[in-house]
Amino acid sequence: MQALLENQSLKEQIAQQTQLMQLLTHQLATPLTALGGSISLLAEPELETAHQQEFLTVVQQQVSRLKRLLQDLMALRNLETGALATHHTGLCLSTLVREVLADLQTTQVTCVFSPELPLVWGDRWQVSQVLVNLLSNAIKYSPKDAPVELGAEVHQAGWVNVWVRDHGLGIPAADQPHLFERFYRVQHRDRSTIKGTGLGLSLCKLLVENQGGQLHVESTHGEGSCFSFTLSIARC
Ligand code: ADP
Predict the structure, then answer these.
(1) How far, in Å, is the centroid of ligand 1 from the Cα of 61?
(2) CATH number of 2-81: 3.30.1120.10, 1.10.287.130, 2.30.38.10, 3.10.580.10?
(3) Per residue in 47-60, is it b (16+ CB within 10 Å) or e — as a string?
(4) What is the pLDDT of residues 184-199, one digit of tens each?
(5) Spans of all domains in the chain
(6) 2-81 and 88-232 share one fold
(7) What pLDDT, on the 0 to 100 scale, is given for residue 226?
(8) Ligand 1: residues whose CB is within 6 Å?
(9) In the CATH scheme, what architecture does the domain 88-232 have?
(10) Which residue CA neighbors atom 7 of ligand 1 most closely?
């Protein structure tokens, strides 16, 4: 019986690894194909300067995409193996959000923080990664210049709730239970041209849980989404 169970568990592990390899191959193939194509075109001796610039931009975009994929995969692996260095401190959310918004170079986001918000307990880099991912998604899956709201308030004794609300594409109900799975992407024609790796939300979930909090989603397809997470109040 024991041998049977071990065999079953081994089969499941192999199936998971195979699925992961297939997804990874797909994630690598797309940017590499675009890179290969642009580099061949750049090698054309009589290429006009305008086209040269266009292909160089593609090369830069695809290299950034591969870098992001690698960074996310490394962070995921380090979280799962317990190797991600975590330094919890008291964080001022409004300062952190100001820094994140400056990095994202966006004016699309309005902040609504309740007054006298207490310091929260978390790792600076990890909490900022969660904010970057949720804000980038809210912008990416919304029409150009549609408003995005970021808010924070004391939720219940000892906890702060942080939310990112958009009025974009929203998420079909059938996809919502799978959003936090690695490499999961919604397959719907309303977003077929929007690029991504399907890693951002799985990473956010693990990062939030690494701070002791929880990540939630509420969304209506065609109307918008609200992602929210909890962080504990710092006891200083
Ligand atoms: P990626 O954006 O790289 O595909 P994520 O893990 O960040 O991967 O998101 C998984 C899927 O969830 C996306 O493919 C997208 O369809 C959907 N999604 C995430 N955030 C939003 C949002 N704010 N609005 C609509 N859809 C979203």
Answers:
(1) 19
(2) 1.10.287.130
(3) eeeeeeeebeebbe
(4) 999 999 999 998 889 9
(5) 2-81, 88-232
(6) no
(7) 98
(8) 137-138, 141, 166, 168-171, 179, 184-186, 191, 196-201, 225
(9) 2-Layer Sandwich (3.30)
(10) 200
